[in-house]
Amino acid sequence: MTRVSVDDDNRIAVLSPHWKSWAEAAIRQMAPGWQDMTASLGSLQDTLAGAVPPEDVVEEATVLMERARALLEPYEVSGSEQIFGRLLTSATRGQTFSPPLWVDRYEDDELAATTRFGRFHAGNNGVVHGGAIALMFDDALGVTSDLGGRERSRTASLKVDFRSLTPLDRVLEVRVRLTHLDGRKRTLHGTLSDGGRVCAEATGLFIELRPEQQ
Ligand SMILES: CCCCCCCCCCCCCCCC(=O)SCCNC(=O)CCNC(=O)[C@H](O)C(C)(C)COP(=O)(O)OP(=O)(O)OC[C@H]1O[C@@H](n2cnc3c(N)ncnc32)[C@H](O)[C@@H]1OP(=O)(O)O
């Protein structure tokens, strides 16, 4: 397997031409502090989800958040121009919706990475919400589906088996393999583990897009 690290240019070198130009267009538009800004938003989401502040703090935090929203609003662009989620060289992709994926190694048909879920992705009982786990798998399997210069694909089906509770605030291992290739159909299998314990497994069917579907 090839070793890569976060924000390593090697990571963009493995992208198919579509993903490469999609990511590069976003990187060209990005102000220098973008990654710090989205990291702050991620921390804010985790901190807010885990806090029980008094009334004055709620009021002040609301004013500050509204101020940030109003600052950004005049710069709204169309979906095809946005930066959020398009920084494929970064573990977070410059977004806070899905958890980060720190890629350790990859081959054309395999990915080894780590992830971590914060309080924002908590369900009940202080563990990770199942929907957040499915979200992480969709990303991890989707990335692996399009490795090796393969054409762009889209999730047709994603099945998740929850094997044991997934802890918050821990670095967890993600392994994905492309297990079957049949024309435009790609089947991928992924696991999410905490040490040796499997927390969840996923099987996904990704379909290579026809030119008119791009
Ligand atoms: C190191 C770093 C590298 C990074 C590198 C890349 C970076 C990358 C980052 C982004 C990573 C994000 C990853 C998120 C990805 C989404 O979340 S995508 C959003 C969610 N998905 C959707 O919205 C899809 C909606 N559905 C569709 O658009 C269409 O149904 C599809 C999936 C394109 C398929 O439609 P179609 O092309 O018309 O396919 P169709 O001809 O009907 O079927 C083709 C074959 O698939 C089968 N099939 C289709 N659907 C199904 C199904 N649900 N179940 C079973 N079989 C099915 C058909 O039976 C058929 O089989 P055959 O007859 O050929 O044997």
From TrEMBL:
EC number, as in UniProt: 3.1.2.2
Catalytic activity: hexadecanoyl-CoA + H2O = hexadecanoate + CoA + H(+); decanoyl-CoA + H2O = decanoate + CoA + H(+); (5Z,8Z,11Z,14Z)-eicosatetraenoyl-CoA + H2O = (5Z,8Z,11Z,14Z)-eicosatetraenoate + CoA + H(+); dodecanoyl-CoA + H2O = dodecanoate + CoA + H(+)
Pfam families registered for this protein in UniProt: 4HBT
InterPro entries: HotDog_dom_sf, THEM4/THEM5_acyl-CoA_thioest, Thioestr_dom
Any one of the GO BP annotations: fatty acid metabolic process
Enzyme class: hydrolase
Domain Thioesterase: from-to ranges: 125-196
Membrane topology note: Peripheral membrane protein
Main location: membrane
MF annotations from Gene Ontology: hydrolase activity
Keywords recorded for this protein, A-Z: Apoptosis, Cell membrane, Cell projection, Cytoplasm, Fatty acid metabolism, Hydrolase, Lipid metabolism, Membrane, Transit peptide
Gene Ontology cellular-component annotations: cytoplasm; membrane
Signal peptide: none
Localization per Swiss-Prot or TrEMBL: Cell projection, Ruffle membrane; Cytoplasm; Membrane
Family: Belongs to the THEM4/THEM5 thioesterase family.
PANTHER family assigned: ACYL-COENZYME A THIOESTERASE THEM4
Protein name per Swiss-Prot or TrEMBL: Acyl-coenzyme A thioesterase THEM4
Provenance organism: Mumia zhuanghuii
Lineage: Bacteria, Bacillati, Actinomycetota, Actinomycetes, Propionibacteriales
